[in-house]
């Protein structure tokens, strides 16, 4: 599970790296929000990228990183680009490997790998899981009894 303090550090580093105000992007900031239906949001009016604190707790570091890249690409491409070719090009360039999402959907819904632990907790991955992982909500640290079964959607 991603630690909120670390998520903030990465988000601010990505904003510094990709949305430097010296290059005309204006100053962007990061914050958490309380959304339950979507993971990330790019607010063009306030120049703010937000991530759901609730959902961040369910994702691994790699997933949060992808969600941040998805939103940073929106900030770079501009609101008019939507999820069109310009957004896609920018997103690829900065390292986003996930899918597109429609307005209002959560980026995580586009992650191709979905897993469940025996208790039914859902987990998502943007990349194929390469090793056996167990559910972080059921057990701290690895525990085979809570192993996650993955499928590709
Ligand atoms: Zn999007
Ligand atoms: Zn579980």
TrEMBL record:
It comes from the Bacteria. GO terms for biological process: response to stress. This is SprT-like domain-containing protein. It comes from Leucobacter soli. Residues 5-145 form the SprT-like domain. InterPro entries: SprT-like_domain. Pfam families: SprT-like (PF10263).
């Amino acid at each position: 599970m991603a630690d909120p303090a670390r998520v903030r550090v990465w988000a601010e580093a990505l904003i510094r790296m990709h949305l430097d105000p010296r290059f005309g992007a204006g100053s962007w900031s990061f914050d958490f929000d309380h959304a339950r239906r979507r993971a990330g949001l790019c607010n063009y009016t306030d120049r703010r990228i937000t991530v759901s604190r609730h959902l961040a707790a369910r994702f691994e570091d790699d997933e949060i990183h992808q969600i941040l890249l998805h939103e940073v690409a929106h900030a770079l491409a501009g609101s008019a680009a939507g999820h069109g070719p310009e957004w896609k090009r920018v997103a690829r360039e900065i390292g986003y490997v996930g899918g597109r999402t429609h307005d209002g959907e959560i980026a995580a819904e586009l992650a191709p790998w979905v897993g469940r632990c025996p208790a039914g907790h859902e987990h998502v991955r943007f990349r194929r899981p390469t090793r056996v992982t167990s559910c972080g909500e059921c057990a701290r640290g690895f525990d085979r009894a809570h192993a996650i079964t993955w499928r590709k959607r």
